[in-house]
Each structure stands twice: as C-alpha cells, then as structure tokens.
Design goal:
- The chain is α+β, with helices and mostly antiparallel strands and 509 residues long.
- Among the domains are: 162 residues, no CATH class; 63 residues, Ankyrin repeat-containing domain (Serine Threonine Protein Phosphatase 5, Tetratricopeptide repeat, Alpha Horseshoe), CATH 1.25.40; 100 residues, Ankyrin repeat-containing domain (Serine Threonine Protein Phosphatase 5, Tetratricopeptide repeat, Alpha Horseshoe).
- It contains 18 helices and 18 strands.
- The strands form 5 sheets. The chain has a 4-stranded antiparallel β-sheet with strand order 1-8-7-6, with no helix packed on it. Strands 2-3-4-5 form a 4-stranded antiparallel β-sheet, with no helix packed on it.
- Helix 2 packs parallel to helix 4.
- The radius of gyration is 32 Å and the shape is elongated.
- The N and C termini lie far apart (82 Å).
Length: 509
C-alpha cells in the first residue's frame, strides 16, 4: 500500500494461491486491471486519469502524475514463501536471455505490453492486457505478432532461454492481444464512443483498419457488436476492413453478430462477402449459433437461404440439441427447425437420441409434449440399448414420466439386461413412479434379470415404501427369489416387524 505507479508502470498482487492480478497505468494515466481474486474474475477496469479505481477491495487514486495504491484486499490463502524474495516494486525490467525469475516475479517482454510471470506454484505464464491465462511459452502466437520465446524451469527457478524482439506476421486469430499501438487504441475508443469524425481522421491517416484492441478484437467487431454503429461499420468496410476477421474467441463476425438480434448486420456482412458457412471457433454452424442465441429472426433467414437443419456442429451435436439444452422450453425455435426438415429422432454421435434431453429434470414438460406430437419415437433405445424414456424414472422427472406413459411408453419395457421398468423405479427410490407404472399396466409380479421377484428386490434394497404399493398392485406375496427364499423369509431377515406383519396380513406364508 502506498506504492506509486507512474504512467507505463505496473505491479502484481500475488500473495496467495487464489489471487493473481496485475494493476497497470497506461501512458495517458488510465488503468487496467487483469486477473482474479479468489472466485471473482475481474473484468478489465479502465478509468479516466482523475477517477478512483476500486475493485474487490483494491483501491487506487490518481494524483496527476501517478497512481497510488490506497487499499489492498487481504490474501485469501497464505502460502509458505519462506526463503523466497518477492519484489513489491514496479517491474520495469525487460525479459532478457539468462534472466532468472523466482515464484512471484515477472518481467516485461520487449516491445510489447506482455509480461512473463512465474506464479507462486511455479508455473510460467504470459499475462496479456486483458486475460491472465496459462499459455505455452514456446512459439506463442499473438495478434499480428509471433513471439519466439522459450523458458525452462530448474530448482523452482525459471530461466529465459530465448527472448528476441517479436516479428510481425499476418494473423486474424488473436489468442492474446498484447501489442496495441496508441493509434489503434484510439480507433477502438472512437468506435466505442460513436465518434465517426475521429474514425474518419484516423483511417485517413493510415491507421491499421484491422488493428486489434486490447481485448483481441478487430475494429469491425467493435463497430458491429460493441457499438452497433452502422455508419462506422460502413466506414471501416470502405477502408478495407477484413470481413473474415475473427474475434478473440476465434468466432467469425457473423457468429458474434448472431447474439445481437440484428438481421440487418448479418445482411450487411453477406453483401460484403462474409462466408455464411464459416464455423465458430468451437465448430458450430451459424444456424447452431443462432439457435443458442435464440435469434429466431436469423434462424428463419438462414433456413430460407437453405441452411441444413440437420447439419452437425460442435462435438457432433445437431442444431436441435442446442435448443433442447435450454431450460426455457423454446418450442418456437424447435418448430422452425422441424418445419424446415430437422429430424426429431436425430441422435448424438454416441447414439443417444437427442430427444432424451427433453426428459431431463431441467427440461420443460412443454418441450417433451411438443416433440412427442412432432413424432418423437417413444420406443427408441439409447446407446446402451436401454429404453430412452427410462430417463424419466428418476424421482425428479415424475411429471415427464406421466407424459410418456400417457403417450404410449411400454410400462413393462426392459433394459438390455432384462430388468423391467418397475425394478428401475425401485432401484432409484421413486415410490411415486410405481403406481404410475402399475396403472399403465406394468406387471407387479415381473422378475428382475437375476430371476428375483420385485418384492424381494425391494426388500434387499431397503425400499420398504415400495412393498405395499406392489402388493396393492397385485404382486405375488408368496413368490420365491432365485435362491428359493420366500418374500416373507427375506422380510424377517431385512425388514421391519411392521413389514413382516403387513406381508402376513396380505397372505404371505
């Protein structure tokens, strides 16, 4: 506390294994804060020079020439750092060949805004201007820059082996954007502020129209997504902005715009040559991204253009699966896909029917009913050759079980081992499902795959609440298990006196 940071300087806070962040002061006096404190991620905090910075207990104030730390959060988990000298002064040194860094130390990478740091657990890390993340230190690729940097660790010390100046290289993919010229930063600021006059001036002066921000995003992304400014977007396009540039997530601009509910922006990108078939950084189609974003207007537009509603995206998932993983029962999006020819009985790559998702606890009953009405195969088996509808036998999906039984699910359906549905309900402790299955026609005297009556199975599993339900449903109270023991004999071994008397009163002998 009390440390004064002058423009261009920074310091690290890393007194414990749960807290790592960097506070830095830009040349203009504004600040940025990277990293996290415990479970709280700190978004970049930028302030005007005259404004106090405060985040998670860290406070600083600007005095006109520098920024002074006035309060620091307490460490969350102190680690043993005895014998380790950790610098607490601003880190002004550039990384150099042969430099040794102890845990808690860091150095600046020449000609960039990047830092190479050694955390208290001994990991070597690159710190960018926005993200604090572990990145392989060999052949690190940055926006427009390749860093030929290598370092090795020995005896808990990192030694820098190579640290030549970075060489510019064309790249539209930004893993970390550490190199941002003041002119490019001004361009992004002008775009965010809807200052078209400044944008025009900077472009006329030759500022890189594709220069990435500290966030790793191109100016066109800033104009489309952050500012939503059609005029500035057109200025950038006229100046040669790369319409195929991707954001720092590796997503095409079309995918980024899909979350903005602006069909006009998508049409503009198409007009200037954007590839609608370009996939997201995770491998999703644009239709898949639109479905995740619940952008019905864009989904309709893409389907009208001929987008394949059955095309698979990330992890081999069909678009319908993306919609089903929503908790809000988005039947309108599902209807769009099905009307366009999506297969309601499509399966995941492992063979599991996608419709199984609609039977999970958090899925809506409305969605399940909708899919059944649309032709969902209620008798489909999952990848393990078990009835898919068995997913609804869990205690937290009873309402879905009722829907499935009413729609014609076979209450006596067995799994791949030969166990009946009633046995599964008993196994899961779902007493509420037992009368539902019995009312639908399930056989209370059915045997398990091991040849045991359901009453015997319930006794062995200590599911005593199932006993009267099965008996009242017509189960044979004198049935024997696979070893020849009667239900009453088992009850005397594992049941209560109350259960034993109940079975005797029911005719067990």
């Amino acid at each position: 506390m009390g440390l004064l940071l002058e423009p261009g300087e920074m310091c690290a806070y890393s007194d414990d294994v749960q807290s790592d962040f960097v506070l830095a002061v830009r040349d203009d006096g504004s600040t940025y804060l990277d990293g996290d404190v415990g479970p709280l991620s700190l978004s970049e905090k930028i302030s005007d020079p005259g404004v106090k910075v405060c985040a998670c207990g860290l406070e600083t104030e600007w005095d006109g020439t520098g920024r002074t730390i006035t309060a620091l959060p307490e460490p969350l988990q102190i680690v043993d750092t005895s014998g380790i000298e950790k610098p607490r002064e601003p880190f002004r040194e550039n990384c150099a060949v042969g430099m040794r860094l102890l845990p808690g130390e860091l150095c600046r990478y020449p000609q960039t805004g990047c830092l190479f740091a050694v955390s208290l657990n001994g990991e070597g890390q690159f710190i960018g201007r926005r993200n604090f993340s572990e990145i392989a230190v060999n052949d690190l690729r940055l926006a427009h820059v390749t860093i030929d940097f290598s370092a090795s660790v020995s005896d808990n010390r990192w030694i820098i082996n190579e640290a030549p100046p970075p060489e510019a290289t064309p790249s539209s993919y930004a893993i970390v954007s550490c190199v941002v010229s003041s002119e490019v930063a001004e361009l992004h600021t002008a775009i965010e502020s809807h200052d078209s006059a400044t944008v025009r001036r900077l472009l006329a002066e030759g500022v890189d129209v594709n220069g990435r921000s500290v966030h790793g995003n191109p100016p066109l992304w800033t104009a489309l997504v952050q500012a939503d400014d059609a005029e500035i977007t057109r200025l950038l396009l006229d100046a040669g902005a790369d319409v195929e540039a991707r954001d720092w997530h590796g997503n095409p601009l079309t995918h980024a715009v899909a979350y903005e509910d602006s069909l006009a922006q998508i049409k503009l990108l198409i007009d200037v040559g954007a590839d609608l078939n370009a996939r997201s950084g995770d491998g999703d189609t644009l239709l898949g991204t639109a479905s995740i974003a619940r952008n019905l207007e864009l989904m309709s537009f893409l389907l009208e253009l001929g987008a394949d509603p059955n095309e698979r995206g990330r992890e081999g998932w069909p678009v319908l699966a993306r919609i089903l993983f929503s908790e809000d029962g988005d039947t309108e999006s599902a209807a769009l896909l099905l009307q366009a020819g999506a297969d309601v009985n499509v399966r995941f790559a492992d063979g599991t029917p996608v419709g199984e998702v609609a039977m999970r606890p958090w899925a809506s009953d409305e969605m399940l009913s909708f899919l059944l009405a649309a032709g969902l195969d209620i008798h489909a088996l999952d990848s393990q050759e078990n009835p898919t509808w068995w997913r609804a036998l869990r205690p937290d999906t009873t309402s879905k079980l009722r829907i499935l039984l009413d729609a014609g699910a076979d209450p006596d359906a067995c799994n791949s081992r030969g166990d009946p549905a009633l046995r599964q309900a008993i196994h899961l402790g779902n007493a509420e499902a037992i009368p539902m299955l019995l009312d639908a026609g399930a056989n209370p005297s059915a045997l398990t795959a091991n040849g045991d009556p359901l009453l015997a199975f319930a006794l062995v599993r200590s599911q005593m609440s199932a006993i009267p339900l099965l008996v009242e449903g017509g189960a044979d109270v004198n049935a024997r298990d696979s070893r020849g023991s009667t239900v009453l004999e088992l009850a005397r071994l594992v049941g209560s006196e109350e259960i034993v008397q109940y079975l005797i009163d029911a005719g067990a002998g």
